[in-house]
Every structure is written in C-alpha cells, then in structure tokens.
Amino acid sequence: MHFASIVPSAAAARRAACAAVLLLAAVGGVQAQQAQSMEERLRAQLRITTSQLQQAQNELAALKAGQGPAAAPAKADELAAMKEELSRVKAQLAAERESRKKARDDSVQLKEQAEAALEKAGAQVAQYRNAYDELLKMARASEAERQRLASETSTQRTAIGQCEAKNAQLYAVGKEILHAYETMDVGTVLSARQPFAGAARVRLDEAAQQFGDKLYEGRFDARGTASAAAQ
Q1: For residues 84 and 49, is the Cβ–Cβ distance under 8 A?
Q2: How many whole angstroms separate alpha carbon 19 and alpha carbon 25?
Q3: CB 149 within 8 A of CB 157
Q4: What is the C-alpha to C-alpha distance for residues 191 and 199, in angstroms, rounded to an integer?
Q5: Which of 16, 96, 125, 231 is placed for a possible disulfide with 10 were both Cys, Cβ 3.0 to 4.6 Å?
Q6: Are the C-beta atoms of residues 55 and 86 closer than 8 Å to each other?
Q7: What gap in Å lies between CA 96 and CA 20, rounded to an integer?
Q8: Helices 72-183 & 6-62, crossing angle to 10 degrees?
Q9: What span, in angstroms and rounded, lies between the C-alpha atoms of 36 and 39?
Q10: DSSP assigned state of 63
C-alpha cells in the first residue's frame, strides 16, 4: 500500500522549508556582518578625511593670515581635493547604508516567504496525515468485512457437509425400512394383529423404535451447525 509514501513526501517538504529558513538566517547573518564591517571602514575613513580636511582648513587659514602666502594656492588645491575626497566617502557611506537597508529588507522578505512556505508545508502534512488515517480506517473496515464473509462461508460449508451426511443417513435408514417390509411375510403381519401374539408385536415395536431413533439422529439442526462453527 502506498499510503505511507504520502507522509514522507510532506515531511521532506517541511524539512526543506526548515533548511531554507536556517540557510536564510545564516546568509542574513553573514551579509549583516559584511555590511557592518564595510560601514565601519567607511566611517573610519570618513573620520580620517574629516580630520585631514580640518587640519588643511586650519593651515590654509594660517597661510591666509600671512604666515606663508606663497603656499596658500597649494593648500587651497589640497583642501579642494580633500573636500572632494570627503564628498566621495560620504557618498560611499550613504550608498553602503542604502545597500545595507535593501539587504535587510530583502532578508526580511525572504524570511517571511520561507516562514509562509513552512506553514504551508505544515498544513499539507496535516492534510496528508488526515487522508492517510481515513484510508487506513477504510482498509481496516474492509479487512474486517472480508474476515466476516470468510467466516460465514466456512459456516455454510460446514452446514452443507452436515446436510449431506444427514441425507446419507436418512437414505440408509429408508433403505433398511424398505428392506424390512420387503422381507416381512404375511404370517408375521397377521400375528402382529392378534391380541395374544406378544412376541411378534414386541419385535415390530423394537424395529420401529430403532428406525425412529435413526431418523431422529439423521435430522439436520442449523443451530447446532452455527454453534459448532463459532467454537
């Protein structure tokens, strides 16, 4: 019977969904660690660039104040490059944060999808289990009915055998009665009718009793057959 194959297939789907959830959690954790590491590096770079920019601005202000006017254009160019670098780092940091937010949103969406698949697999397992239990109940009922019919068939066969045996006995008794009447002479019959022919009368009564007993033994009783089959 292929009923049991239903449950393993549903259980496999449930295990696959569980594995997907675990894999998703692991991948999400790795992605979160990678995103956090990248953001930390960008923040460190931003701090360094900001510090350098602040230092360059201070130096440029000092140059403009008269401490070294010849180096002012060079410092201005360096300051512009640092501002450009700062803008670039800020843009990278913003992009990294956006990417991290998108990855987090995708992770949440995938987790919800995996949980929905897991719930659906659980519902299918319950559905298959109910169907399996119902089919198993029907199979057991069919087997019980088959055994009952087999028992009835056995009882009927026993009754038929007993009927045949009783019929054979009755046939034999009938032949004995026929033979007795065929071999009985007229004198025996007449003597049996005389009031003082006791011996002949007794013999006939005994013969009649014996034939009656044999006929009684040869009768068929259906209740006896049923009780014998039940034992």
Answers
A1: no
A2: 10
A3: no
A4: 9
A5: 125
A6: no
A7: 27
A8: 170
A9: 5
A10: I
Q: Find all residues with CB under 8 Å of 170, minimum gap 6, and list them.
A: 215, 218
CB 21 within 8 Å of CB 115: yes
Write the CATH number of the domain with boundaries 3-150. Answer: 1.10.287
In the three-class reduction of DSSP (H, G, I as helix; E, B as strand; rest coil), residue 197 is classed as: coil
Taking a C-beta distance cutoff of 8 angstroms, is the pair 35, 100 a contact? yes
What is this structure's pTM? Answer: 0.37
User: Which residues are within 8 A (CB) of 68 and not within 5 positions of it... i.e. 6 or more apart?
Assistant: 62
Q: pLDDT band for position 40 (50/70/90)?
A: confident
DSSP run (H or E) holding 183 = helix 72-183
Average pLDDT over residues 29-54: 68
CA–CA gap between residue 9 and residue 28 (Å, rounded)? 28
HSE-CB for 51 with a 13 A CA cutoff? 6
Question: 31 CB contacts (<8 Å, ≥6 apart)?
Answer: 103, 107
CA count, 13 A, side-chain hemisphere, 149: 6
Task: Give the chain's length.
Answer: 231
Q: What DSSP element (H or E) covers 154?
A: helix 72-183
pLDDT in tens, 78-117: 767 777 877 787 787 788 788 888 888 888 888 888 888 8
Q: Distance between CA 110 and CA 28 in Å, rounded?
A: 10
* Cα angle value 56/58/61 (rounded, 5°): 110
Residue 21 corresponds to which tokens in the numbers above? 């959830």
Q: Give the start-to-end residue ranges of the domains of the chain.
A: 3-150, 156-230
Cβ-contact 158, 229 below 8 angstroms: yes
